[in-house]
Amino acid sequence: MADQDEWSTNANEAVSISFVQPGQISPVALSTFHPRFTYPIFGEEECIFGYQGLDINLRFAAHDLLPNVSVKYDKKFKTVNDTEALDIEETLKQWMPEEASFQDPATYDAHIQEDAAAIDWKPPGELINSYTSRGRDFQIWSCGLTDPAAQQLIDRIQILVSFFIEGGTPIPLDDQGWSLARWKVFFVYVNPRVPYRQTLLNTVQPSYEKLSPVPLRRTSPYSL
Which of 29, 70, 126, 170 could tie 57 with a disulfide, CB 3.0–4.6 Å? Predict the structure, then answer.
């Protein structure tokens, strides 16, 4: 019988999330952090069985959020009867877009470092506001979720909903057009001239409630 503690890893600690952009020689991480919780993906116990020295690194390009997943470990549990290590790649594929790469990180690094299109890339939609805070320039862009470019960005980053929003669920992007049209997307980018670096993404669904008129009943001649 496998020792559960010996082969179990805290998923919140094993998973790290980074936003990267080209550096002088190789991509550099602008920020790296852990998820707040992982139970929607790895179960209520937030544990991953079958590995020692486990490190799961989710990286996103800072401008267009292109994702890459790298899974490293020191040891992997050898299957015994029905007890086996969790298939991390297959588990994460259910929460990542089809274009997410699970390939050698070096291939992803080369793409980030050599992506000439990043220089001319701009967020989808229209620029609705610009401001400066603490010496940095920011831009707010907005568009509807029927925009294919906005859908692509949302699809690439939606796994963060399950990592940080209690009870949050990804937006079904395969929904009918009339449903997607209800959503408005706002992107906040740091604009260091080039390339863009995303700092915040927000989705808003307008809500309208029709109220029926309620007749007032006067209970006395002096009621107001």
Answer: 70
